[in-house]
Amino acid sequence: xxxxxxxxxxxxxxxxxxxxxxxxxxxxxxxxxxxxxxxxxxxxxxxxxxxxxxxxxxxxxxxxxxxxxxxxxxxxxxxxxxxxxxxxxxxxxxxxxxxxxxxxxxxxxxxxxxxxxxxxxxxxxxxxxxxxxxxxxxxxxxxxxxxxxxxxxxxxxxxxxxxxxxx
Amino acid sequence: xxxxxxxxxxxxxxxxxxxxxxxxxxxxxxxxxxxxxxxxxxxxxxxxxxxxxxxxxxxxxxxxxxxxxxxxxxxxxxxxxxxxxxxxxxxxxxxxxxxxxxxxxxxxxxxxxxxxxxxxxxxxxxxxxxxxxxxxxxxxxxxxxxxxxxxxxxxxxxxxxxxxxxxxxxxxxxxxxxxxxxxxxxxxxxxxxxxxxxxxxxxxxxxxxxxxxxxxxxxxxxxxxxxxxxxxxxxxxxxxxxxxxxxxxxxxxxxxxxxxxxxxxxxxxxxxxxxxxxxxxxxxxxxxxxxxxxxxxxxxxxxxxxxxxxxxxxxxxxxxxxxxxxxxxxxxxxxxxxxxxxxxxxxxxxxxxxxxxxxxxxxxxxxxxxxxxxxxxxxxxxxxxxxxxxxxxxxxxxxxxxxxxxxxxxxxxxxxxxxxxxxxxxxxxxxxxxxxxxxxxxxx
Lengths: 167, 444
Description:
The structure holds 2 protein chains of 2 kinds. Chain A is α+β, with helices and mostly antiparallel strands. Chain A is 51% helix and 13% strand. Chain A folds into 2 domains: 5-48 and 134-166, Alpha-Beta Plaits (2-Layer Sandwich), CATH 3.30.70; 54-118, no CATH class. Chain A has helices at 14-26, 41-46, 54-79, 92-118, 147-159; strands at 5-11, 31-35, 139-145, 164-166. A 4-stranded antiparallel β-sheet of chain A has the order 2-3-1-4, with helices on one face. In chain A, helix 1 packs antiparallel against helix 5 (147-159) and helix 3 (54-79) runs antiparallel to helix 4 (92-118). Classes of the chains: A alpha+beta, B mainly alpha. Chains A and B meet through strand 2, helix 3 and helix 4 of A and helix 1, helix 5, helix 7 and helix 15 of B.
């Protein structure tokens, strides 16, 4: 495998960065990572971003919470059968309250776990973003490409309005 | 407005605040200390010092519990419900409202524990295999409360933290002092890549969708603490919606109470505008009308029920020993907010601040009236004489709870971005792009 180089383009606006990213992705010039201070739908479209699988984590967490919310109280009343308030041991209406709350609790925790896994967080020891301005007002396009493609990548970034281009 | 200016303006709030902030935190910590002292005295002496006496065995602590849970609700409404409705004006106020939610729920959560005879055994409420070989009673509203409050606190805290993550990263990259290390840790290595934003926006939407039914369920469950009992004045099906509306009403008032000084302390007039306060006051007016309607319906139901006990309780509530509290409550919650129909009141920050204080007082009294008047006028006429007077311990712990809430809130706004930088960039930044000359500063 040929050695890879990194080319970084710094843009004033997300829209310009999206044009640059699209040109590189469409031209198959390298692997693109975009950095921005806000979510940017133009960039998402340029990078052909798909729907986040976080929703599955929320769904699985929610279903697990709902099942726990019913099964756990049922287990406890069967484990130590004690009639209270003249109600049946397995009283579904009050258990609905527990199930409802646990559905939301587990769904939220599941979603958070999914987000951290998918976003590859926490990363406390890895490299910081290539430029601190990406959390402020600049959008960045980092392209991992072969040395042969680097010139074409730079040309793409320059053509679409990059303020700075560096390796 | 440029992204850089938004970034700089909001992160400026992390630097040394003015004397008003220091005065506020000093006052808040002093109040907290008073409450802590009173609690230690109560823990050492017993619940008798809290004035618990038959028939009023629930009073100030449960009043405070319901009050603080209610305060939390507006935060979720603004951060989650208005997000789902794409109400863009929420951007300027959502962060403070979310923080308020977390701190108010944390404060509320202390009161059921303070209300226990042996507060150090509070963990007995948690269902876990134990040497007593007993499980908790899942049919008890007290256990429902535990699940509801724990869930609400966890979800609100996660929601707040998720929204904060990119802003903490912005602070990490900007702040140069010792806090940089803490921000680096809390940002979890956030880079702002398109991959991270994709999952972030997805989860933010899900959190909003989960928090919306949660906020309704939590105050419904709190209302069932009362409605599940057969006591006249409590045993009513209207309680859940009545409590939810009251919660949003009181929470909105508290948001206004907090935001007006915060905006002044941190010079955030460009971001939190009169337009935002006008929208908040419209929300307060709407919920005040719902609360007023609920008051009327409560009396109608009492009359229509034909039950002399129910009718007696409500008559006593307005014309008995506690009439002053009830009429102040009605005035603060349903009469004074009618002033908000006047645009000049809605756009005057001084008037709004004063009105919000009255609403806070009125909503605290509403809970006090519901709890104390119903307990003092139960089925046994022998209990109907005498008037409940809170003790100094209850008063001090109440003051302490305000101290705790304001201490947490003031520390938060000093150390974290009190306005969402990311959302402000998205909304004001977009406004700038489409505005004439790309320099629009119109409020969003």
